[in-house]
Structure formats: C-alpha cells, structure tokens
Amino acid sequence: MIGGLKGATGSASIPTYVLPLSLVIGAGAVLTAKKHLVNR
Questions:
Q1: Of the candidates 13, 33, 32, which has an alpha carbon nearest to the alpha carbon of residue 21?
Q2: What is the pLDDT of residue 35?
Q3: Sequence-separated (6 or more) residues with CB below 8 Å from residue 15
Q4: pLDDT by residue for the chain (40 residues), tens digit each?
Q5: What's the angle, vertex CA 37, arms to CA 22 and CA 34, rounded to 5?
Q6: How far apart are CA 19 and CA 15, in angstroms?
Q7: 22 neighbors 8 (Cβ within 8 angstroms)
Q8: DSSP readout, 1-40?
C-alpha cells in the first residue's frame, strides 16, 4: 500500500501521513458503528 501511494505521489512523506490517518479514521468508524447494525 505504501509503495503504491509512493509511486502515485512521487514522494515518500505523503504515504507516511496518509496510512496512519486512514487507520485512525477506520478505527473511529468501527468504534462508532451502531450495535444493532453489527449484531444481526
């Protein structure tokens, strides 16, 4: 994933910030999911 972002942007610093940011957003989405939607 980092290699793809590095190739697309041409920089190594941008993927360094994009990957942790996407992980934090994903974790927040998981933690705020409604329980009745998950427990079917």
A1: 13
A2: 77
A3: 1, 2, 5, 6, 9
A4: 677 777 888 877 877 888 889 999 999 998 888 877 777 6
A5: 60
A6: 6
A7: no
A8: -HHHHHHHHS-SHHHHHHHHHHHHHHHHHHHTS-HHHH--
